Amino acid sequence: MAGKKFNAVWLASLGQAEREKALAEIPGALRARLPWVWPFWAREDQLPPEGEWINWLLLGGRGAGKTRAGAEWVRASVEGKTPLGRGERGRIALIGETLSAAREVMVEGESGLLAAAPPWARPRYEASRKRVVWPNGAQAQLFSAEDPESLRGPQFDGAWADELAKWRYARETWDMLQFGLRLGRNPKQTITTTPRPVKILRELLADPNTVVSRATSYDNAANLAPQFFARIIGQYEGTRLGRQELLAELLEDHPGALWSRSLIEDCRVKSHPELLRVVVAVDPPATSSAASSACGIIGAGLGADGHAYVLADHSVQGVSPHVWARRAVDALRELQACRLVVEVNHGGEMVDSVIRQIDPHAPVRPVRASRGKVARAEPVSALYEQKRVHHVGALPVLEDEMAEFTRAFNRETAGWSPDRVDALVWAITELMLNPSSGEPRLRRL
User: Fold this and answer.
1) Which helix (H) or strand (E) holds 401?
2) Residue 374: which pLDDT band, with cuts at 50, 70 and 90?
């Protein structure tokens, strides 16, 4: 093994006899622990870079192994050289897109902290206190990017931020986290995310204290289900969205897009004024198979200032009509909306019927598209240009669709359907462009 880097990749390249010989040379105690020796199994992009840094930014495609890399970084930070020894860090912040995401992905997920820990140093998760505690006393506390204020007060010597580009209140949450990184001699933070061209990510990439690793979905193919490649990669490979979600590329604005990223960013607000009217728009899919289009469900309200505010994206994909109807009715109640605006081009009376099975008294307004998607979307895009439509916080999947939706959009060549955009267009049209609603028409500049 002289001169060779002894790891899983090198071992797999050997023939069976050579492999058995190499393994036989490993002392028995170490061989028993080998499943828990992360540097042996990890790809180079999954290991923390050498040198001085404060932020380790791991940009990865879907299923690229970035969650495992984050969990192993936390594990290495808190573990000492002996079973009860202390590592370099003892107070870690774990920030997920939501609290449930932090728990289900970062802690209890297949690649999370509990799965990555060896039996002799396995931490326990205390759900009531939203924290993970290791046998040596180190702790990690869970936070949600939907509640930046929860980070005001606690202090840490390390942090793992997952899916930063999807955080609803990214700037506010990130700022609060930085104020809390004030323990120890060398606070560090690891950020694992699929890239999106959002402002906070661009700032991190430009920060001289940031080191960047990149991984694609293909890099981790051996650990992914074959169906994933057959369905997801087969659908998005070669598309712009695939370059972002699979190859982890940070994309610039699409030429000809009705909405640019900078336009969406300029229209973002932290909160909304008093709302005079709220609607939930639904764009149902034609089928309910896993590979079908999503059911776009977007909530928006008309403010007292005459502007529209996009409040929530409750869209779902690959579910039965009963499930998406339940989701739409739940959104109606949660947002205290006055009506469901439902496209009925695909389904007609069935669409209204399935919603009334959930709630017989649901206020449903059926709408039917008589023009193409682009023609219907252009007046709404004009309202954004007039700064009369705003997003309350971030709505990342919807915004991805908006930034990819061009005047020459073709579903067959694009490889995806703009279901969230369709629902958004119906919602804003109902609030601001529908002459029968009594709301103001588009003001020509």
Assistant:
1) helix 396-404
2) confident
User: What's the rounded Cα separation, in Å, for the pair 196 and 106?
Assistant: 20
Q: Please tell me the distance from the alpha carbon of residue 336 to that of residue 334, in angstroms, as a whole number.
A: 6
d(CA 58, CA 46): 8
Domains parsed from the chain with CATH numbers: 42-213 (3.40.50.300), 261-437 (3.30.420.240)
| 3-class secondary structure, 76 | helix
Is 354 within 8 Å of 321 (Cβ atoms)?
yes
Residue type, 98: T
- The helix (run of H) or strand (run of E) holding residue 264 is helix 261-266
Tens of pLDDT along 7-50? 666 666 667 777 777 777 777 667 677 788 888 889 999 999 98
DSSP 103: I
Nearest to 41 by CA among 78, 85, 10, 76: 10
The token pair at 320 is 């039965």
Which residues in 71-89 are b (16+ Cβ under 10 Å) and which e?
bbbbbbbbbeeeeeeebbb
The β-bridge relationship of strands 124-126 and 131-133 is antiparallel
Q: Would you call 114 helix, strand, or coil by DSSP?
A: helix
* Residues 246-278: tens digit of each pLDDT: 888 887 777 788 999 889 989 999 899 999 999
